[in-house]
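User: hey, got a sec? need ABC transporter ATP-binding protein folded
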Amino acid sequence: MESEVLLSVRGLRIAFAGVEAVRGLSFDVRPREVLALVGESGAGKSLTARALLGMLPRGATASGSVRLRGDTRGGAQRGSRIALVPQDALSALSPVHPVGDQLAAAVRSVARVSRKEARARAVAALDRVGIPDAVRKARAYPHEYSGGMRQRAVIAMATVNEPDVVVADEPTTALDAELQEQVLRVLGEQREAVGAALVLITHDLAVVREHADRVLVMYAGRQVEQGPAARVLDRPRAPYTAGLLASLPSGEPGAPGEPARAGVRRRLPTIPGVPPVPDALPPGCAFAPRCPLAEDRCRREEPQPWQVDDGHEVSCHRWDDVPYPAAELFQEQRA
Ligand SMILES: Nc1ncnc2c1ncn2[C@@H]1O[C@H](COP(=O)(O)OP(=O)(O)OP(=O)(O)O)[C@@H](O)[C@H]1O
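Assistant: Yep! Here you go:
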């Protein structure tokens, strides 16, 4: 069923020593859907990802609920159904064991199968992500893989047990453009092959435009806007989303406005200022100090999510005053 919800997050809050870094986040992920979590550094994307996996850092306290197919149990129950592709591929693989052994161990940690069967699944997973001569490569150590092949091996590791959800935390930041594209393509293919949904964490709206069905834009631990990716990027209703879009090079797949002209470099507007830290949030809307549309109310009252369109929510008092094209908000400021 199209509308079936696979993963449901309600009122998620994550705090360190009483200071909230994620402040009441709610979203759903449907089967096979790609949901992108976007926002600047410190928005709470990685913490949210870790909460989905039930792997919060030491000292964090969480409230709210994360349900997978209606089940709130965390730990191993959820751990085997939600898999992580971490930011740093190297940290995901042990340097002292052959890659195939690591994948086989991952298989045996969730399924009671023979060593031989686990091995076969490991090789099949390596083969599926496009590693040539997978039988032989399974016997090699991570340092014997090229950077791109290692990324693929990490994706194989995350998908070997055919999870319901793959969470990829900025899987491409350390890679050059060609490898980034490759990794995103392989992730997409694996999503198809094992029928998983993908939660893709990124700060790159061009990646969202290319690869996501839905997008959740975060700022200072809260939802700013969420909805179908094409609709949010074409007609953002939150000034913050508009600012992220304005800072994309024109002609990028996520960028609005005219196509890029070869040889012409324009100075890109960026959102002035920096995001607040969790223990020094301004009153009202956390984005107000950087927002060209902020008025008194914004500095007093935190906006609640408001449905502007089918499945498109925005948390902004002034969403109806965001111009079209929205990037103009920040271009004007620069002038
Ligand atoms: N282990 C920790 N101890 C204390 N505070 C933390 C810890 N981890 C995260 N935080 C706080 O939570 C905020 C959000 O962190 P998070 O890593 O989720 O951000 P992010 O959006 O993923 O950023 P980035 O893009 O840089 O990874 C941080 O700015 C920090 O204040």
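Quick note: The CA atoms of residues 269 and 335 lie 9 Å apart. Let me know if you need anything else on ABC transporter ATP-binding protein.
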